[in-house]
Amino acid sequence: MADEAAEKRSFLIFAVLRISGALLFIAGVAITFSDLVQPRGAPFAGIPLATLGLSEALFAPRLVRRLTRS
């Protein structure tokens, strides 16, 4: 029973990390190429945000899994 609860909790953590990373990536791309922040886009703000979101979506679940198993 405890293993099932731990598995559900870890699945929820991984899902939240991937979804929030994807949302950060989409927000960064939107800021870069649209008029959300300033006319003709704001690549100085959007590109780092998109990079951060992509790295969170791809690498954060792996790091969390490695930290929780040890």
Dominant shape: elongated
- The DSSP helix count reads 2
Uncertain segments are: none
Strand-residue fraction?
A: under 5%
Distance between the termini: 21 Å
On the 0 to 100 scale, the average pLDDT is 89
Helix content: over 70%
Secondary-structure-derived class: mainly alpha
Q: How would a textbook summarize the main sheet?
A: none
CA radius of gyration is 16 Å
What's the structural domain tally?
1
Write the H/E string, N to C: HH
* DSSP E strands, number: 0
TL;DR of this structure?
This protein is mainly α and 70 residues long. Helices cover 84% and strands 0% of the residues.
Structural commentary:
The protein is mainly α and 70 residues long. It has one domain (2-69). It has helices at 2-33, 43-69. The longest helix is centred in the N-terminal third of the chain and has 32 residues, at 2-33. The protein is elongated and about 55 Å long. It starts with a helix and ends with a helix. Keywords: Membrane, Transmembrane, Transmembrane helix. The chain crosses the membrane at residues 12-33, 45-64.
